[in-house]
Structure prediction request, 505 residues.
Amino acid sequence: MKTATLILDRDYAIGEVDKRLFGSFIEHLGRAVYGGIYEPGHPTADQYGFRRDVMEMVRRLDVPVVRYPGGNFVSGFNWEDSIGPRESRPKRLDLAWFTTETNEVGLHEFVRWCREAGTEPMYAINLGTRGPDAARSIVEYCNHPSGTQLSDLRIKNGAKDPFGIKLWCLGNEMDGPWQICAKTAYEYGRAAHESAKLMKWVDPSIELVACGSSAYDMPTFGTWEYQMLMECYEDVDYVSLHRYYNNRAGNTPDFLARSLDLDGFIKTVVSICDAVGGTKHSKKKLNLSFDEWNVWYHSNEQDEEIKKRDRWGRALPLLEDIYNFEDALLVGALLITFLRNADRVKIACMAQLVNVIAPIMTRTGGGVWAQTIYWPLLCVSKYGRGTALRPVVKSPEYACTDYDHVPYVDATAVLREDGSIAIFAINRSMTEDIELTADLRGFGDLAVAQHLYLHHDDVNAVNTELQPENVRLQESKGGAVDGGQLRIALPRLSFNTIILAPKRN
Ligand code: AHR
Prediction:
């Protein structure tokens, strides 16, 4: 059997894992809200129309933060449309997705859903059709205690206590020509600066995310970040990154190597942030918010058909990717990459949460089930909180179209509060199990408490409402620690979570 080695040392730490690394995203798009989290009349709906079965699946993921209400949607959205009595809220054309928005679920309903789901909203403001005035107004409406027209309006609308929304996105993908009222880097940087200034004057405790490029392969990538940050570096706390992967070519080894691209993307954006900070002689270090990431391509053709057939429809089944086993493996590799960059990536939102390119699927009027990508996210969210360790990994490699050296095994580890260590490891080999040997320096006597792995013989295997557990977590009993050395077999094509706990005497 081939062998890979991992060295972990108690004193080599990357830093604390910010729990917001396991965030998610719900946009007013497709069946994410209507028919996803919200479906009055569904047998499991609560008194507010939220599906309890979906809520339960969200709670299991322990999602710390949910970005809302878009996405592209937000660049044409008037937040005022989403408050007050439902019957008087306007229906509007959504020019981002060419559908109709009814505003049946709005700000108050979403905040209530977040409280129930045990999560926090990450609210995006509209810097497309709107600007600093709307931005400062919504912060005042949400976060100011009382005594002004807007804060008193919130109270009149049923929320006596301020919502206390801490995290705000300054627009969405403002560099993209598809965006409603896209901007140049300078125009955006100025709008972000002025909006941020007013928003923080209203509530100095909030944190702000500036829009980085909408993708690594945008022609303006790099110069966008540099130029817009030159205008707003001191006003914001994070810069956003978005990235979606696909396997249109049907080449699994190439596809599974895409986490190397993610790593390069993160490191490049960190360099640009530091270059701007350096140019400005600033003491401030800007961190990253990877606020959209996932696999996205399975539904592309179907979406074109739906858009042609049903322009201005409501709650259309858009972006409903059905994820297969290899997608889950890549998601696992991407999560490993986030943990390995935990010193600078503080927020990451899988896009999205329910139905729309999502780990959770529903049938309107029917059941709910976990897609394949649910499982690696659950493992890392559940076990990956604590101190990210700086791993040294040596693995046999393969070459693929974009990279000459792709390690078959990629791994990282987190030292958890209870003294246990969680190792996350992917085996990219299509054919061979690989033994992982880990040298556990300075951790004392450890034993393998649990080894969970995700594997399926067919990379195209999917979960459906009728076969919800086709791709699921399995448990192995094989590994052992002896003399400070872990030896454990990683099945071919697998994502592994290995928990090492201090031995009880
Ligand atoms: O997540 C789907 C869409 O992808 C978002 O609306 C947009 O920001 C991105 O292009």
